[in-house]
Specification:
5 strands; two-stranded antiparallel ribbon; single chain
């Protein structure tokens, strides 16, 4: 693809309505599309000097984003949870059943490993390693920011509560083994009779999270944002930030590139009033006089 073709293709997309939303594609979707085109050229071993230059396409996307903002379109973000909300979701999982054990693992690892639903669905049993007295290590063979598929290990420290990533995994893994499953994908389809099927899709991961959130009464936040699988990834980033984790440590845990600005958007400042920048500005000691009206 030439630079001119990429630019024109992007221009057409800015005027194209999404079948899923019924609205024009947003800037984020267009940015991902351009990135996908560039990645395809890399994977196809196209010489660097034949790669399209995305500068003009990105300028079109920037202008498109501004037009949408001026027209009143706002970027939608998933709701996030505090620890109590995460615990409420886990309590909806019947750990006497294989389905409940799987669903608990989905909630717990989505938070502590800050997983994308697609990369979670792709994990296989050898990717998970229990480190005695320490916690869990989970291997990600590739990710959105690891297109070369060099792989990366993510650690999840053990906890002494119902959100412990080790207990969530070991109990589910042992239940899978009892059902004859010792290889292949970690997340599996399970029918109402407890029969284990093939892999669980990324869409199903999101459906399960939304089902548990609704059952726990945490499906929506005060601003009307709905909790999704992406929201649990942001929950992990937010909890880490609130616990004092550095930006570098958060980016490593979430598998963002070291200098990513995108990662900053995953940290949600939930205390809108107490944590406001102006909340601790001292009050004027003198009493206020009566309001004078013209």
């Amino acid at each position: 693809m030439t630079s001119q073709t990429l630019t024109e293709w992007t221009r057409v997309l800015t005027e194209t309505v999404s079948e899923r939303t019924g609205d024009l594609y947003g800037a984020s979707a267009l940015t991902q599309a351009v990135s996908a085109i560039l990645a395809l050229h890399t994977w196809a071993d196209v010489p660097d000097d034949l790669h399209p230059n995305p500068k003009a396409a990105r300028l079109l996307i920037k202008a498109h984003k501004k037009r949408q903002a001026d027209a009143g379109r706002r970027v939608k973000k998933s709701a996030t949870l505090d620890l109590d909300g995460c615990a409420a979701m886990v309590r909806q999982c019947d750990t006497a059943t294989l389905v409940g054990l799987r669903n608990r693992l989905i909630v717990v690892w989505s938070v502590w490993a800050m997983t994308r639903r697609s990369e979670f669905a792709d994990r296989v049993l050898p990717d998970a390693v229990v480190v005695p007295t320490k916690g869990m290590r989970l291997f990600f063979a590739s990710s959105k920011t690891d297109q070369a598929a060099e792989g990366e290990w993510v650690s999840m420290p053990a906890r002494d509560d119902l959100l412990d990533p080790v207990t969530a995994y070991v109990e589910y893994r042992d239940a899978l083994a009892a059902a004859g499953i010792t290889t292949g994908k970690i997340l599996r389809r399970i029918d109402r009779w407890g029969s284990v099927g093939d892999e669980l899709s990324a869409e199903s991961v999101n459906d399960i999270i939304q089902f548990l959130a609704a059952a726990a009464g945490v499906a929506w936040d005060e601003q009307g944002n709905k909790l999704t699988a992406h929201g649990l990834r942001a929950t992990g980033a937010t909890l880490a930030d609130e616990a004092g984790a550095s930006d570098a440590v958060k980016r490593k845990q979430g598998r963002w590139s070291p200098h990513s600005k995108v990662a900053d958007g995953y940290v949600r400042h939930r205390d809108e009033w107490g944590g406001n920048a102006m909340a601790n500005v001292p009050a004027v000691p003198a009493p206020r006089g009566p309001i004078q009206e013209d």
